[in-house]
Design a protein that fits this description.
- The protein is mostly beta strands and about 140 residues long.
- The chain has no helices and 11 strands.
- The chain has strands at about 5-10, 15, 25, 35-40, 45-55, 65-70, 75-80, 90-95, 100-110, 115-120, 130-135.
- Strands 1, 4, 5, 6, 7, 9 and 10 form a 7-stranded antiparallel beta sheet that branches.
- It is globular.
- Mean pLDDT is about 75; it is low at about 1-20.
């Protein structure tokens, strides 16, 4: 059985949906606060964060929280729980501050190392914009 991990680097806003038909809104736990590095467990499972901030409802696409990755920190990232198969990953992103930015979507199958699937520039993306990628490519 293959285990696939997804690494989403340097995006400012997220609502994630996977081919296994689960969605994570990052609403729980209520104790998540400030820039966080480590494991945070949500309804969908354990996520690994490196310098991720729980954005307020006013900056969230849907719900009371979103993830803001500190793009001033090298290696800032979000890693999803492992999934056994994935169709499409979708999330919303925007850059709430000025400047330029790029995020990458990466995968790791059975611990074989991270592979960049695609990158996305998000300069001047001031309103939530949907990003989708078919992982079966």
């Amino acid at each position: 059985m293959k285990k696939i991990y997804l690494l989403i680097i340097l995006f400012a806003f997220v609502s994630v949906s996977f081919g296994q038909h689960w969605t994570e809104s990052f609403e729980n736990p209520d104790t998540w606060s400030g820039y966080t590095t480590g494991t945070v467990t949500f309804d969908s499972g354990a996520w690994e964060f490196v310098s991720v901030y729980p954005e307020a409802a006013s900056a969230s696409f849907d719900g009371s929280k979103a993830c803001r990755i500190n793009d001033d920190i090298a290696g800032a990232s979000i890693v999803s729980p492992a999934v056994n198969s994935v169709g499409t990953i979708s999330f919303y992103y925007h850059r709430p501050f000025g400047g330029t930015g790029t995020f990458s979507l990466e995968k790791n199958v059975n611990g074989a190392g991270w592979v960049v699937l695609t990158t996305q520039n998000f300069d001047a993306v001031t309103s939530p914009t949907q990003f989708s990628y078919d992982l079966k490519n």
